[in-house]
Amino acid sequence: MITQESVERLKASIDIVDVISRYIEVKKAGATYKACCPFHDEKTPSFVINHNKGYYHCFGCGVSGDSIKFVMEYEKIDFQSALESLAKMFNVSLDYTDSRYKPNEDYRILEKLNVFYMQNLSPSIREYIKSRGITDSLRDRFELGYAPKSHEVVKFMQDNFLNLNAVAEAKMLWRDDKNRYVAYLSERLTFPIRNENNKLVAFGGRILTNSTTQAKYKNTSNTELFNKSRILYGYNVAKDSIYKKEEIIITEGYMDTIMLHQAGFTNAVGTLGTALTKEHLPLISKGNPKVIVAYDGDRAGISAALKAANLLSLARKDGGVVIFKDGLDPADMVQGGKIKELKELFSNPIPLIEFVLVDILNKYDLQNPMQKDSCLNESISFLKQLSVVVFEEYKSWLSYRLNIPQHLIKINKPFEVLQSKIRNDSFYGIAEKCVIKSILEDESLLDLALNYLDIDMFKSQRGAYLKLLNGELEDSELIAIMCDENVIALNKKELKEQIIMIIAKHYDDKIALVKQDSTIDITTKLALLDNYQKYLKILKTGELVIYESISSI
Predict the structure, then answer these.
(1) 303: which residues sit within 8 A by CB, 6+ positions away?
(2) Helices (H) and strands (E) in the chain, counts
(3) Residue 476 burial (CB < 10 Å; 0-12/13-18/19+)?
(4) Helix (H, G, I), strand (E, B), or coil: what is residue 248?
(5) Which is more confident, 317 or 443?
């Protein structure tokens, strides 16, 4: 993380009018500055910038904030990336709390390699790219390149004084059995992989010949900068279109994504050799778009689409699945000129929930009463994980397809459970969610929670915490917490503070209960209250200890 001193130094060095003027046209209007708001369509300027106080406000849509927030909202990047972007604009150096943090060096290495790969596009490679239906402008937009033979790549690194150990840490080099450096990508078309903040974090590569000994596609292994289960290929290019259209098309990889952009579907992105996972959900949820799953039409693609539909349904996402006939994929459709058919498919996808339910129905012989009963139970098990409204909406759908009365399709959900849902967004409910989300994003934090937090210390999120401990990571309740943008993932220090707060609340409640309990004799009651107060006093100093370790004081 960036130190607070650096943040303050940066804030003192930037001018809000200068910042916003780099993105939109700004005109002086008396003591303030005005512009047409970049966050909603308008012809008469209602976006006002107060130069002296360093903030902006739009009287049309209500957005407001400082320079940092403007960059975050305009570029759709996170807080740290906005700080780094502003620091680069105004030539301000930043310090990080972790001295080992070296993102700029890693990014520099990858950017140099990217330039090298793009410069190695020979006429024959360019011709190959054109033969796949990719225009020159699209090739440049996605920065396609070519990695030559391994020794040429290594020589380039040496000639440009790149630290080979650092390049190896970025997974772009490895050592063979003779301890020689070997390029991870060689004799492959290269696809730079950028994160949502447009930072280059990894590469993908495709061989240009048919080979039975090499994988057609490969991408960099996970590093400090890159986790393939969290990044979507092309999101940096597609994000403006995703926000504008309020829709995201998810494909299976590089070529499908690029070719859909070629055909005008500029909101397309791709997973990177992995199925869609819960770790992708925070990125997919940005802007809350409708989600269209557009995987290949072969058996593997349909299976992956089913898993994605199940995950997205449980995450309460709106959208659907597109099925391509005859084993085709999106790239095939574009190259075959079937743009009209693609538009029709994307306009009328199979709804996510329906796609999952149809798969359940297809597993059973519905002419057999026992199998029909099993099918009903499995369908209800899926639907009851969703909202009550969704369950009620799909009752008639399921009744029709199973040819049974609607009253047989019911869910037993006690009133108390529904009430707990209402209480989930209380202050302590959010605190408990933050603990759970932190562990979901960083499993190394689990031990810290286990040492101090018992199940009964959780109030509204007790069930979710239990599911977390049981490893039920695909459960809809945990997925909902992962997707909730109001819930923040904490670092170890912040998590410790949150744990202290939850424990303190638990023992405050215990004190109230003991005071009201007439079955406890006065001597025991005073002793308990004294111990609880001593424990709370220790917690308030910021020291995290187990109650039993002080209860004899």
Answers:
(1) none
(2) 25, 16
(3) buried
(4) strand
(5) 317
CB atoms within 10 A of CB 43: 6
CA 246 → CA 236, 243, 401, distances in Å?
15, 5, 32
Strands (E), 51-178: 55-58, 64-65, 145-147, 173-175
Say if residue 420's pLDDT is above 50: no
Nearest to 153 by CA among 180, 187, 104: 187
Residues 356/382, Cβ–Cβ less than 8 Å: yes
- pLDDT (mean) for 94-114: 76
Tell me the range of 210-219, 257-266, 477-486 where mean pLDDT is highest: 257-266
Supply 549's token pair: 């370790």
Torsion of CA 522, 527, 532, 537, to 10 degrees: 120
**Contact by Cβ (8 Å): 49, 56:** yes
Residue 474 tokens, joined: 């695909």
> Would you state the structure tokens that stand for residue 305, as one six-digit string?
């689409």
Is the Cβ–Cβ distance between 193 and 219 less than 8 Å?
A: yes
Q: Token pair for residue 138?
A: 């699209």
17 to 34, 44, 56, 81, 93: CA distances (angstroms): 10, 19, 9, 20, 21
Pairing of strands 47-50, 55-58: antiparallel
Identity of the residue numbered 442? D
SS3 of residue 373 by DSSP = helix
Distance from C-alpha of 330 to C-alpha of 269, rounded to nearest angstrom: 12
DSSP state for residue 37 in the 8-state scheme: -
Residue type, 181: Y
**DSSP characters over 386-448:** S-HHHHHHHHHHHHHHHT--GGG------HHHHHHHHHTTSHHHHHHHHHHHHHHH-GGGHHH
Does residue 415 register a pLDDT over 50? no
CA distances from 457 to 23, 421, 442, 472, 475 (A): 49, 18, 21, 20, 21
| Whole-number Å distance between alpha carbons of 135 and 264 | 13
pTM value is 0.67
Taking residue 76's Cβ as centre, other Cβ atoms within 10 Å add up to 19
CA-based nearest residue to 264, from 348, 349, 342: 342
Q: Return d(Cα 140, Cα 42) in angstroms, integer.
A: 33
Give the tokens for residue 424. Answer: 């989930």
Strand spans (E) along 21-152: 27-29, 32-35, 47-50, 55-58, 64-65, 145-147
256 Cβ neighbours under 8 A, 6+ residues apart: 268, 270, 294, 296, 329, 330, 331
Cα–Cα distance for residue pair 424/433, rounded to 1 Å:
9
Tokens standing for 220?
A: 């960099």
